[in-house]
Structures are given as C-alpha cells and as structure tokens.
Amino acid sequence: MVWENTSLASIAANPFKYQIKAKIRIMAQNSHINSQLPSDISTAISRTAKPSSEFYSIFSEEEVLGIIHALEVRREIPLKYSYKGRGAKIWDDFYRKYVIPRWYGRSNVEIELLKDNFQYLNGNIKLGKTVNIVDVGAGNSYPVKNFVQRLNKLGKINKYIALDISEQLLIVSRNNFKKWFPSVEFSSSTIDIENTCVPKILFQNQAGIENDDTAKIFLHLGVTIGNHQNRDEVFKNFRESMGKNDLLVFTNETGSNSAWDGKVRGGCKYHVEEIYGWVKSKIGIKSEDCELVRKYDLKTDSIVANIKFCHNYTINFSRMGIDKKIEISEGEEITIWRHHKYEIPKLLQELERSGLQLLHYSTDKYKSHIMVICQVASNYSNPI
C-alpha cells in the first residue's frame, strides 16, 4: 500500500510507522463497514474517551500508532510508555520511596546482586583496559551507583551511556550521574530496546571516525526483562548490539508465575496504582467506569494488571492526522502492567533462541531474584 502524498523513500526510512498506519487504515475500513450494520446487530456505545492534549504532547506519532496497534491487536497499553511525561516522576518517586536502601536496614536486591557479582564482572575486564557501561532502561541510575563507583576507583570506566525510552528519565539520570561522578564521561539517548538495537554511533570514539573497540557491559536492571511483551525480540536486539568481548547483565524475579498467591506487593501494588491513575487521566477514562484487576494470565504466563471496563467504551484518537476509534465492550480488560518470573530451564531456552550464551548467574539470599550474565553465543556470527 502506498499512501497519498507519501514518497517511497519516506516509507523505506520508517517502515514500522507505515506498516502500523496500513493496519490501522484497514481496521478503520472494517470498523466503517460494521457501523453500517442494522441497529439490532450493532453494539451501542454508551461512553467515549478522548486522549488529552497532554497525551499527544508526550508521545510521537509513531508511539501513538504503536499504542493504537497494541490496543487493537492485544488489548494492551504497553508498560514502557508509562515512563514518559509525568510517568517519569511517578517512577522516580516510587523508586525513591520504596526501593532505595535506607540506613535502618532496608536493602536493595539489585544493588546487592551487583555487589555479589562485582568480582566476576571485574575479572572479565582485561588487564589495563577500561569498559563502557551501557545502561539500557537506566531510569534514575540509582541501581548502578555503587557498581560504577567501585569500577571508577579502579580506573576501569571509560564512559557511562544511559539509554531509556523516556527523555524525562534521562534528564534525571544525567543530573544524578554528573553529581555522583563529575569526571566520568556521560552520554545518553532515547531507545526502545523492544523495537531496535543500540545505535552503533554511541560507541564511536570522540573523533567520531570509527567505532570504539572498548569492551562494553550492557546492563538491563530493574527486573525490566520481565515487563517486556516480547522478550525474545529484546534479547535479539541486545545480541545484535553486542561484540564478542561484551557482556549482558540483567535481573529478574524467579519462580512460578502460575503459583502466584494473589497478594499484591512492590511494583505490582504501588507502581501499578500510579500507572492506573496515569492511564485513566491521559486516555480520558472516568474512574467510575472501570476497575483495576490484578491476576495471573495463562496466555503470557505472567502476572498482569488490567483496566476492566464496566461499560461499553469508545476510545477516540483524532489528532496528528490520526482518526481511529477503538471499541471496547463492557467486561473487557486492557493490560497496563505485566511481569514474568523466570524458571531457569525456560530462561536458558529464551537465551538460546536469541543467540545468547549463559556465562554465570546468582540469586539473592531468598532465591527470589536472579542476576544473569551472558555473552553472544560462540556459534553466532555477529556483524559488529
């Protein structure tokens, strides 16, 4: 399909955007056909939601199209979008209040796991060499503070690269990092690791002439891997971003998802409540027209938080040249948060499918969280 007033060159430059536009146009045509059905067959729509002007100021056209596509195809507003705009402050406030270690004894699982694995990671840095720390999903950068501090004292840090989908969180990251480590080179860039690899230009030397061959440690902390809708694609994008001497370090919860006891705690409680309010506000859904449901989802083998609609609803997207209505029936649910715990055999299968090789892993003292260290599989030919 070729769009009016759209060149083939622009389509080739951004195929993802135009693929979604094509799907949405077909869906809109089908929706128009459905609207011509007799009134006794058509579904009466009693509520309409219109995303706020702030919603359209937060998201790019491509991101709005992505949200529409996710709603249409799998009834989901991907969690990654909740970190943009005011969502960045929601996350930072949640982290500061509930996750940062306190003097009176509260510890941070990820900080402790990085501490436990410091010797292994440091031992993989060649003698006399430095590394680039590539923090994907950097957030406010608090989890890496102590880790970077120890490497920096040993003279092992070349530079720190913060990557996140949220421009606002990257500002928080920069402010924090430059306060902690004013002499360490810092760079940042927005990225959606579920849809793209880490840009090679970030690894160029200061002259910008050629790629820096400094080894990299890719970090993906915050048990974020379990929040992705497409984990295989995330792992593949990491693999394509890595060189033969690079490491990927990520964390997640461990255990059986189906054995969830139904008790809400941590992010499933506090962060979800904030996201629920954020989504209602930005999409334009009235509180009395919906409820928050947390449950185990068999299809994705994950714990999810959903908005359940108490009435028939139409979500009307009508800006940026977009004209699309999403119809949601009474009783239907939209996922706004998800988390998948790992059992080791399944984790190994996902890594193998993605061309990654497990080198080392360790768990916290309660065996509730895992830190995984891996590299590009030896039988995989990497173009980098």
Structure, explained:
This protein is 34% helix and 22% strand. α2 crosses α4 (61-74) and α5 (86-98) runs antiparallel to α11 (270-283). β12 and β13 form a beta hairpin. The protein is an alpha/beta fold and 384 residues long. The chain has two domains: 8-88 and 262-339, no CATH class; 107-255 and 341-376, 3-Layer(aba) Sandwich (Rossmann fold).
Tags for this entry?
single chain, 384 residues, alpha/beta, Rossmann fold, 2 domains, 7-stranded mixed β-sheet, 3-stranded mixed β-sheet, 13 strands, 22% strand, globular
End-to-end distance, in Å? Answer: 34 Å
Query: Helix/strand/pairing class, anyone?
Result: alpha/beta
Q: Based on the coordinates given, report the CATH architecture of the largest domain.
A: 3-Layer(aba) Sandwich
**DSSP, total strands:** 13
Please give the order of strands in the largest beta sheet. Answer: 4-3-2-5-6-13-12
Helix content: 25-40%
Number of domains: 2
CATH class of the largest domain: Alpha Beta
The radius of gyration computed from the alpha-carbon positions, rounded to a whole number of angstroms, is 22 Å
CATH homologous superfamily placement of the largest domain: Vaccinia Virus protein VP39
- The proportion of residues in beta strands is 15-25%
Shape descriptor: globular
Contiguous helical run count: 12
Layout of SSEs?
Elements: H1 8-13, H2 15-35, E1 47-49, H3 53-58, H4 61-74, H5 86-98, H6 109-116, H7 118-123, E2 131-136, H8 145-153, E3 157-164, H9 167-180, E4 185-190, E5 215-220, H10 231-241, E6 247-253, H11 270-283, E7 290-297, E8 302-309, E9 313-317, E10 324-328, E11 333-339, H12 344-353, E12 356-363, E13 369-376
Parallel strand pairs: 1-9, 2-3, 2-5, 3-4, 5-6
Antiparallel strand pairs: 6-13, 7-8, 8-11, 9-10, 12-13
Helix pairs in contact: 2-4, 5-11
